[in-house]
Amino acid sequence: MKDFVNKLYRNHSLIYKALLFVSTTFLIVYLFPKSGKFKYNFEKGKPWQSENLLAPFDFAIKKTDDEINAEKQAITEEAVLYFIVDSIVKPRVKNNFENSFSEVFSDSIPAKKISHLQHVGNDILNELYLFGILNEDYNFSEKRTVAILKERTKIQDALFSNLVKQIQVSSVIDKVLNRNNLINYKADFTSLFFDLVEPNLNYDKSFTDKVIQEELDKISYTRGSVAKGTLIISKGEVVEGDKYQKLESLRSEYESQVWNESNYNWVLFAYALLVALAMLMLLLFLRKYRSEVYENNTKVTFIFFNILLLIFLTTFVVNYNSKYIYIVPICVLPLVLKAFFDARLGLFTHVLTVLLLGFIVPNSYEYMFLQIIAGIVTILTVSELYKRANLFISVGQITLIYIIAYFAFFVIHEGSVETLKWETFIWFVLCGLATLFVQPLIYAYEKLFGLVSDVSLLELSDTNSKLLKELSDKAPGTFHHSLNVANLAEASANEIGANAMLVRVGALYHDIGKMKNPTYFTENQSTGINPHDELSSKESAQIIIDHVINGIEIAKKNNLPDRVIDFIRTHHGTSVVYYFYQQEQQDYDDVDKTDFSYPGPKPFSKETAILMMCDSIEAASKSLKEPTSTKIDAFVESIIDRQIEEGQFLNANITFKEIQSIKKVLKNKLANIYHLRIEYPE
To answer: Which intervals hold domain HD (predicted)?
Structure first.
């Protein structure tokens, strides 16, 4: 059991990567669409580029949106309107008419005439209430069919024009009086009915809408079907009309197909294989070309997290509305990875992510082409992210590339620019503006993952920062030495293509541990008194060696990034404090060399190796007497060659060719410092 636990502990980093790999693959597959994907691309009005297409299974031909909308409009416009009749209104009005009739018409009128007038009054009421009087003026077509309901039961059918509006009551009275040659009594009848007539029809909107919805629900969204094995379209035929609708129906059938359990599992398995393959390629790339990133689980997690985040955002936008797909700032990924790592890793990860997004987005080839080109432009144009002007210029170039590439694709598909959707260019502009969010995003990532970007390095390189000002006050000689080393290291890094900003910051802070005992270091001894005279060689060596440990402690207290602390930790590697070691050998025969050796580790990157060389050269150059070009050349060669012999650069990925280039830079820099001219052979 103990051996098993020890084995787990030794391989915990690999186990973590395996879990990260599996979980990321699972989450990406979970975000992918769980349906079939139509494997053919086609455009309306363009020739069919693939081979003859036969129906792979029976499927229904879907109606176009225009056809469906036309049917819905016809149902809505021709639907029966339902009105509820108030059955007690008509009897009440008739009863009131009988009671009020005698009050309006005088007794002087002959009885026979009175009877006739009363009969005509009843005719008017029957005419008004034949279908009913509307309670308000409704804006419906006169030819609409209506149904009159009593207690939700239809009792009568009519046209809307048969229903009497309140403003039409007077005209109905006139019509009946004209028919009976009694127009002279218009004023009397109008006065009589003005207070008597009541509306008795109310429009039942809820019931009408319910009936309309029932009819809409009965609409068939298909017209006919295509049997399995039927030729849908031949190669070279133009995709239009019925053929286009059949192809759209087939594609819709593929994309909306509900898989049975067996098919569903196969689809998930296939997706998982492809995603796992892509993520495995990324891990293999890191292991082969970026081993320092591969060994750091935090950095691997950071890369996987960014891939997953972009896939999630893209999936969210596609599910909401795919026309906004180009608003998602995919180019943030290479920008972020370039800021924290390097351009090659950023581009490789960007391409893999875009390939995965091809499973999600519509018009996948067009999308992938645009995004890969934009990613390449991002990597090529953004050189120094900490310079704000550079970022704005690069975002403008990325946006321009998007617009040009999209325009080209559109012309290829449509053959003209007449139907170009100019609003799509707005999405590209918004995408460019969203890409500017990379600056606060980088800051957030630095806090969350403990990473360091060039933006933070620029802030740390400010010599007015609290820690460097403290170094300048307590150990001015060390501060001046650090500035000189920073200049030498930056020039050397630029010569071999290393991270010049990182090595400069590392050089500025590499000796901050000397602040604890500044007078024990020669560059800070201005009084001529050497406190080492009162100490043994071993004690003096320990104080010198401790400046590395003290520097690490000070750096951590001041929250310096680990990448900067690495320079403090490695700038002496495992070298020996030779001066005190030789003194000890003169006094004693048996001397333990480890008591005079720095604890290490040795430099493990180009940048930390550069700092070790420049630090040793700058410090030792103070002892040069009457320097000449020949002396300087021999001096640089001897110091760096001794470091090589001691194996100080075995863990650093630096080549002999790069070391020779650094030697050349250091020789030229020292010659300039001592105002020497290069000695040329006669």
So the answer is: 478-620
